[in-house]
Design goal:
With about 150 residues, the protein is an alpha+beta fold. It has a single domain, classed as Transcriptional regulator MraZ domain (Chemotaxis protein chec), CATH 3.40.1550. Helices cover about 35% and strands about 25% of the residues. The protein is built from five helices and eight strands, in the order ββαββααββαββα. It has a six-stranded antiparallel sheet. The chain has a two-stranded antiparallel sheet with strand order 2-6. The model has no long low-confidence stretch (mean pLDDT about 90).
């Protein structure tokens, strides 16, 4: 289970050092094999390979005649890149994906349960502040008491 927000820095080669607390679980569940792809919010999604394979199977099953389904498949599958933890616990973020998400030096790794989001730090801060002020596409968050906790 991946949770929490981790501010990190990319090195000069575009590598991200995965926080130590996540390395062993990623090695245990995925052999250190990961998949990166893009998200509509201009961040990257980082999946352990077995989780990605399940997502990929679901995407492949989407209609090829529905234009929205085709667009989603093009975005997620078309930008998917395999990567692996190196001996130092780092992953290389490919340049086209870094460019898409405007990832430079400062980034934020956001745990999402079965995957991570990788955000430009300023974009994350701006998105979070807009959401907290109620400005995220006019939608509001559900009340916590309405969720089954």
């Amino acid at each position: 289970m991946f949770r929490g927000i981790n501010p990190l820095s990319l090195d000069g080669k575009g590598r991200l050092a995965v926080p130590t607390k996540y390395r062993q679980p990623l090695l245990d569940t995925a052999g250190g094999q990961l998949v990166l792809t893009i998200d509509r919010d201009r961040c990257l999604l980082l999946y352990p390979l077995p989780v990605w394979e399940s997502v990929e199977r679901q995407l492949i099953q989407l209609s090829s005649t529905n234009s929205r389904a085709r667009a989603l498949k093009r975005l997620l599958l078309g930008h998917a890149e395999e990567c692996a933890l190196d001996a130092s616990g780092r992953i290389l973020l490919p340049a086209p994906l870094r460019e898409f998400a405007n990832l430079e030096k400062r980034v934020v790794l956001v745990g999402q349960g079965n995957k991570f989001e990788i955000w430009n730090e300023q974009a994350w801060n701006d998105w979070r502040e807009a959401l907290l002020k109620g400005g995220d596409d006019g939608e509001s968050l559900p009340e916590l008491d309405a969720l089954a906790f």
